[in-house]
Amino acid sequence: MQRKDVSWRVWEIPSLSSLQCTSYLGGDKMEDTITIDGVKHKVGDKECGECWTDYPTKCDCGGLIHAEFGDENYDCDYWLYTKCDKCGEPE
């Protein structure tokens, strides 16, 4: 039985900072969005067209709180789903 020689190659791995904005599957930059109740909101967009009236607002963490209509009851009281685009917490 013959022994096969095995050679090892060292591959350079890109740093994480170079991976933050690039998708290696398609080579395009990934869009920064958050999803609230199935609707995508653009991170950092102070005039988000998907947000409920008077949103987004500033969060204590420095991000923006985006809002999506939740539901309303028979008394016409409604609630919103909210989420910060930085820390992920609701309002």
Give the percentage of residues in beta strands: 25-35%
**How many β strands by DSSP?**
5
Helix percent reads under 10%
- Low confidence ranges: 14-30
Number of helices: 1
| End-to-end separation | 70 Å
Mean pLDDT: 77
Task: Describe the global form.
Answer: globular
Largest sheet: 3 strands, antiparallel
The structural class is mainly beta
Oligomer: single chain
Polypeptide structure, described:
The protein has 91 residues and is mainly beta. Helices cover 4% and strands 29% of the residues. It has a three-stranded antiparallel β-sheet, with no helix packed on it. 14% of the residues are buried.
Brief summary:
The protein is mainly β and 91 residues long. The protein has one helix at 16-19, and strands spanning 33-36, 39-42, 57-58, 64-72, 78-84.
Feature tags:
91 residues; mainly beta; 3-stranded antiparallel sheet
List the helices and strands and how they pair.
Elements (H helix, E strand, L loop, with lengths): L15 H4 L13 E4 L2 E4 L14 E2 L5 E9 L5 E7 L7
Antiparallel strand pairs: 1-2, 3-4, 4-5
